[in-house]
Amino acid sequence: MQIVSNTELPFEAPPARVPASRRAVEVRAASVIYPAADAPVRALQAVDLDIEQGEFISLIGPSGCGKTTLLRVIADLEPISSGEVRVNGVSPREAREARAYGYVFQAPALFPWRTVLANVMLPLQIQGQDRARAQAVAREQLARVGLAQFEGKYPWQLSGGMQQRVSIARAMAFEPRILMMDEPFGALDEITRDGLNEQLQQLWCRERRTVVFVTHSISEAVYLSSRIVVMSPRPGRIVKVIRSTLPDERHLGLRDTPEFMQLAHQVREALADGHH
Ligand SMILES: Nc1ncnc2c1ncn2[C@@H]1O[C@H](COP(=O)(O)OP(=O)(O)OP(=O)(O)O)[C@@H](O)[C@H]1O
After folding, report:
1. What value, to the nearest 5°, has the Cα angle with vertex 168 and ends 174 and 153?
2. Where does the secretion signal sit in this chain (predicted)?
């Protein structure tokens, strides 16, 4: 993602203290039990989590611990079995209907028969925006992820990293205050992933949207996050929340600093504790 400055977007630092109702996300004693033919699967157990506006939160934990489930619960893609979830002070459904968030899936999930531009336009058109307006917004979003030159291409003509940037542009089309990302760079090679991490970090720094990001990578979590939420193996519980001590503006070289390594060590220890 080449970062293009956008003067129309106000640079909003998160307020020091946000009233409870203005929290981006509030999760209270949330449990999710999936029905299954043999024994029900308890995916989340009594999870409590508050996310303030403008935070970058990573959810990290072993495979199957419920990271995706927690993200889906916040996004109204999965019902909770018990507990309560609020997004921007309203129910997840109301937040979804108000287009409060954009969602980026593990795989880009683009329509192969639509051009890049038409893929980004689609949710806007479904919402009823007229073609010219949808096209203008889609073009702007593509420019922000550095893909202005590729709007006429089809997804299969792009690399995996470029396809994921199209997905990010599509998720941003409604200018959501919250961006939810489910391991968006997990399938990419390390160099591409580093580049996208750096650009996502810059995007967050510039626009201060709230981001909830699922990852398996300790280094990715530490590099990107303002807080790292470490989860235990199933049933998913929160083992520890680690607040970053790194500056908001980060470059990849930070990963070689003692401060970064110390944070990575804390995350690794918390993951290990979760197994006990
Ligand atoms: N629809 C479903 N029905 C039954 N079980 C499910 C369903 N979706 C998820 N699960 C189970 O719930 C648990 C949590 O799954 P989830 O996908 O949230 O974990 P995760 O931490 O995101 O895993 P990964 O890191 O491998 O993507 C897993 O054991 C999974 O098999």
Report:
1. 105
2. none
Residue 115 CB–ligand 1 contact under 6 Å: no
Sequence ranges of the domains in the chain: 24-100+179-274, 109-175
pLDDT at 63 over 60: yes
pLDDT of residue 20: 45
Q: Domain 24-100+179-274: give its CATH superfamily.
A: P-loop containing nucleotide triphosphate hydrolases (3.40.50.300)
Taking the alpha carbons at both ends of the chain, their separation in whole angstroms is: 40
Mutate to test the pocket of ligand 1, among 38, 42, 65 (most ligand atoms within 8 A of CB): 65
| Whether the CB of 41 sits within 6 Å of ligand 1 | yes
Cβ 72 under 6 angstroms from ligand 1 = no
Pull the structure tokens for residue 200.
Answer: 């996502």
* Each residue's pLDDT tens digit, 130-180: 999 999 999 998 988 889 999 999 999 999 889 988 998 898 888 888 999
Complex ipTM value: 0.96
